[in-house]
Fold these 4 entries.
Entry 1:
Amino acid sequence: MDTHRYLEILVNNRLGGDKSRVVELFDDDEVYRDLIVLDVTGGWLNYKNNLNDGWHLIEHFGFYDVYYQERGAILERSRFEKLKEAAAFFYTESGYVGS
């Protein structure tokens, strides 16, 4: 299973299919840890530090970095202390919420 499919299952099963509520899945880091493990194929949403184009949500030295990367260059970066805040920014800016 890939990260996109896993996230879709969680949104459908826990949030009634409402993607705008995705941040509710990040009250703790359990879902985030699962996404890291499942992030092996790359895609538009990334949870590991890699060279894939797209949006990234990466834990780094006790913070959460959210950035957009294209052709190996990081074009935007925001840093958050709390996972839930980082997830809200990540899923909104990436276009996941509203898709």
Entry 2:
Amino acid sequence: MMPASGPGLSLCNDVIHTAIEVVSSLPPLSLANESKIPPMGLDCLSQVTTFLKGVTIPNSGADTLGRRLASELLLGLAAQRGSLRYLLEWIEMALGASAVVNTME
């Protein structure tokens, strides 16, 4: 699949970049206490994580910058959630994306 181009792609990258800035501005571990996050918030985090993992795959349609930004946001969310589980999920995603890139070359 060829990556998309144009204003839509730039808008997506801008939105992800803004989300990175927001997550970076949060106090450390602000998402760590899941008992204080409403069920809708946890569901939202899960859906956002699933979406961002999909963006990191080379044939997702995102450009290289978009894939990098999605990876960066996922790492920021994992750090804010403060659990080894989320960091390991990020590592698994990074290894998977890397494996796909290596098979495409």
Entry 3:
Amino acid sequence: MFTDPRTGAQHQAPSLKDPSSRDLSVVIPAYNEENRLPPMLDEALKYLEARQRRHLSFTYEVLVVDDGSTDKTTEVALAYSSRLGFDRVRVMTLPRNRGKGYAVCRGMFASRGRHVLMADADGATRFADIEAVEEALKKLLGKDGELAIACGSRAHLEKESIAKRSYFRTLLMLGFHALVWALCVRGVRDTQCGFKLLSREAAWKTFSRLHVQRWAFDVEMLYIAQRLGIPVAEVAVTWTEIEGSKLVPFWSWLQMGRDLLFISLRYLTGAWSLELHHKEQ
């Protein structure tokens, strides 16, 4: 359900299986992001509003999914909805924290866009880089295609990031990448960048089969896409590290490594399949 902050009315969320009614949906998962969310929304909405003024037929929506925050994330997001209108900025508040993957999934299922972008609440990726990601998606789709995914990538920054990281963190990062390549996804150098654009049909086919609810969900999503033959492109984006990350380096990498093993083993043993895992809730 979505709440219109101007009227207080409750609105039923639309379905990803409905025909699209917007050109672009932007899904932003947010957990305790009252401080980092405003700059991100300011940048994104400034770009989207300017694009709409340049191209009057362009339509968009922003969906903020509050993943059970204990701060004022929902109130902050609702202020934008009140100012710009419920039709442009919608806020979904989950009753408890379920994980980034679950929050993105909920937003995807409630989106109305022909293309659906997932973007992190910290604003680490320059939002205007959506143009390069869109161009890659269009090339994959061609004239009549319905299935494609374009991933923002920080792989071109790898040498720089290694130079700034401790030896231990670099070792963890390289180990994670090696596990991804060995167990799940090949051909995508940066699976974890939170800036990914999907065609509407690709969003349905991948997220309706998703099992992982936390940080490693990107890997499973791309694994599903590759298993289903959905074309995937990787596009370099401008990325800046933002303070306030929710990831605790050692334990988060450890949890993601465990999830990678689970993804591989559960698909190999048949515990998980590519059948639809869950319907929209």
Entry 4:
Amino acid sequence: HGCARMDEAGVYTRVSEYTSWIEQNTGIHNFCKA
């Protein structure tokens, strides 16, 4: 996808697993589908 860098650690996650936490902690309640 062009976002990784060789020889550097990367972190990837399924953001949809955390939408309720994001809503509770940021007040953001609308998300765009990617």
